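Hi there,

I know you've been waiting on this one. I reran it after we fixed the sequence typo, so this is the corrected version. Both the input and the resulting structure follow.
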Amino acid sequence: MADHMMFTDARTLSPGQILETDVCIVGAGAAGITLAKEFAGADFRVLLLESGGMGFEHRTQWLYSGENSGRPYFSQEFTRRRQFGGTTVVWFGRCRPLDEMDFEARDWLPHSGWPFSKSQLDPFYIRAQEIAQAGAYDYSSDPDPLKTAGLETKVIRFSPPLDFGETYRADLERAGNIHVLLHANVVQIALANEKNRVSHLDCAPLSRRPFRVVSKIVILAAGGLENTRLLLASRDAQPDGIGNLHGLVGRYFMDHAYLFSAATTHVPESIPADYLKLDYETQQSNLGVHKSIGFSQRFMQKERLLNASLYLVKRKGHKMDDRYYSKAASDLVAFAEILQHKARPSLSVLAAAGKALPRSSWLAGAALQAARNKSKETSAYALRLQMETVPNPESRVTLSAKKDSVGIPRVDLHWKTTAQDVENYVRFEQLALAALQKMGFRLQRFQHELDSDGWPVSMIGGKHHMGTTRMHTDPRQGVVDEHCRMHGVSNLFIAGGSVFPTSGMANPTLTIIALAVRLADHIKQRLL
């Protein structure tokens, strides 16, 4: 065993150099760093490959650029961070485990059911809670002020939040068995002749000085889009991509549906301050315990609802106007995001912004007035819906004809929701708002402009990429088995949200960490 840990820049390697290790982890985000942390000090070598460096780099970040052929979605380079620490660098810190119902097969939810129950994941959730530094593993709310008409409080605990790269770098440095290789892009996963195990990884920095990694075990922890892209792009041994014998790699892409439902002009005094902490107008740090509004599992089963919750969010007055949720305003907000990230907008985005500007001059005026007179613009609370969506095989990731600067085909994301999703949104909103009005909330529903699918045009995803390498014991229904090992490839494992069979309504990071801890235990049993 080496007596020190190394950080190396792949750009300093010799062309054609071969690195050998026992475990190779691809991606240094929440999943990858958790795995490395769990392996620290073990009696085997670990190589952690990260495409980026220690900080943000535009050239590396744009490797995420891809195409969207489905529902309107964020530019992909805005949805993840490609650097040591991954997207935890900009993580809001929201933690909640999935609910017991999320793991169960529900007869009203196609393709639902995990290979294990929540109780089997709870010991790993407890360890994940410690890694996230999110306080006690206690998500109960007793007494619950919402116990009426099926309503139930959903507790969220906030991480400080943590930049995993900054927080856990020292732990990895002390480990002695871990080598972190920065600016290391995997460009091809190569299978051995018998096609049932990974032989090696072909890699390259942006300078395209190729090198190779040979490892007994490989774990992909690069995110829901990049895990899939690597598998689909590795076609030498299997023409449709590795693990894709049944055409499942890239299918069942899921994200949470986010939208604002209603404004409230009065919150009952019975609602404690823990429900009123969210404020998107100001920079916030650790919010501690926060509470949202949902339905009990029994009620959701009775009404055959998808899992969802409502958050009370403090909003400025001009964002309570129905016009803020129009297509024109949505186009303008999307254009503002591009400018904020200093990216080059496409011609289609420029055209959309050109159409949006004349129709949303009121928004620009209101925002300008708010900026000039921050202290006087009134604020109120809006109800923001966060809802799981149906696992849909037609919602998928494929490869574009275009390639990135290291020669890998770019992602074509086709996010496609279902009629059941829209019907559930309408039903959930109807039931929840009626129950809140009975409690004394005074609500004013936003009059949304609808798109061709029936969604409000302001509906966006949560930037939570899930489901594209889903978990199932049957290789005809999933890409990985219950241990996150790829069906048919004995030494290839996948970590992260891409293995989720269903999404639940909770943000995925705590579950991603818990699954990484569980996978680390499984790998250690195999190697020790």
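Quick highlight: The CA atoms of residues 30 and 88 lie 6 Å apart.

Best,
R. S.
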